[in-house]
Amino acid sequence: MSLAPSKSSNPVALALRDVTKRFQGAAGEVTALENITLDVHEGEFLAIVGPSGCGKSTLLSLLAGLEHTNEGTIELDHEAVHAPGRDRLVMFQQDALFPWLNVLENVLFGLRLKPGLSDAERLESARYYLNLVGLGNKEKARPHELSGGMRQRVALARSLAPNPRVLLMDEPFSALDAITREQLYGDIQEIFTKRQKTIILVTHNIREAVCLGDRVALFSPHPGRVQRVFDIQLPRPRRMNDPALATLAAEVTAELSIHLSQPS
Amino acid sequence: MKLPRPVIPTLVALAFFGGWEWLVSSGRVNDVLVPAPSQILQWFWEALKSGELLSATWVTMRRLIIGFAIGVGLGVPLGALSAQVRWIRDTIGVLALGLQTLPSVCWVPLALLWFGIREEAVLFVVVMGTIWAVVIAVQEAVLNVPPLFLRAAQTMGSNGWHLWSHVIFPAALPGVISGMKQGWAFAWRSLMAAEIFVVIVTGFGLGSLLNAGRELLRMDQVMGVMAVVMLVGLLADLIFFAPIERWLRRSRGLAR
Predict the structure, then answer these.
(1) Is the predicted ipTM greater than 0.90, yes or no?
(2) Which CATH number does A1-87+164-264 carry?
(3) To probe the interface with B, which of A97, A109, A159, A160 has the most B CB atoms within 10 Å?
């Protein structure tokens, strides 16, 4: 166990500048995100937390390139993000595994789209990541034969296998039971520490954000804005029932309720 | 005591056909109107021996398979296109919806005028019976592909043709198969109607055989052909569609 070193001295991987996103709703234009400015450093785990309507999932779609900003820029390694790309893979709330493929083929899906690899390298890589998430013995299984937790593990392997620059997580634990979730927190932290990935997690679970994030960005709703960013300097691996973690989570919750109690 | 499952259906069938046979052979029912099962079987045996039944079945199956293949071959890409392109959905998609409700035998007069009393006329009617059901089924199947699959695939770098062949089509496959099954049923109905309505010199199919039975007042032949038509439809389902559907259900965990 070591104190988590600050990642703020690392080079910036993802740079968001004044990102604004509006939607045409039934009741006129809705501003989902307003002037979001954030830097995500190399090898950093950023957790974005906030109540529903704070635009956190929209932000992830923007980062993934599945939607476009109205104003502002998003840059990954100084290149503008404007389309989906292998350098930013997403873990969704539902696992999104393809039911017509088995576990190994699902993990291979992204790898096969990555040029410059031989089939043997792809297979080796897929097996490596399946082993990493503890499912090396489930290669031939179909997604429907696995539990919800296992399916999310396969989804994690699938997003990690093509070795993206940034891993985007869109509430991937919210549909899981508490015990499975706890296990996955452990797995993710282990992989994060081992692989030094840059990860952005979106969640509405404050404890989860504090447990996983190097920093926690608290968003406020209507329109979505960054309310405050917390540095979480707890040693890893962190456990959900750690009192120090609970104290920090309470701090974030208090900050959140300040905003929510204000009339809007 | 628990009886094996086939016992009751067998007993019911025996009672039904036995009763029918008895009603006719005892003279209570006129065998010109309703032939006895034994008479139908006898016709069946003779038609089989003379080769008449096999050649008619072959002619019909050939038309059906060619017409069905053309219908599916055109219907699947058209349905996919209709799902993908808004203005095609607003034109051909809507047209398909309307044409699907039109019994394809309505095409017979036009088909005869356009193609003459020829094989092409029959095929045209079969294709018209098949294609619209397939177009609509494929369009719905593609539109119902979960957006999450598309988003996931796109972030992994899939797009264009790869997205179609590796994600949209496999995801839509169950819907496409049930559309094909429906298309097959429609093709079968269209073909029978066309063969009964039109005497086609290029081949004597099951429908023609049935119609000949009507003209000769041979109800044993009419009912025999009806049984064969049923049997062929059943066999097609058993040999072709049922295994595909079973495989789809099992491999995707949709089995009950």
Answers:
(1) no
(2) 3.40.50.300
(3) A109
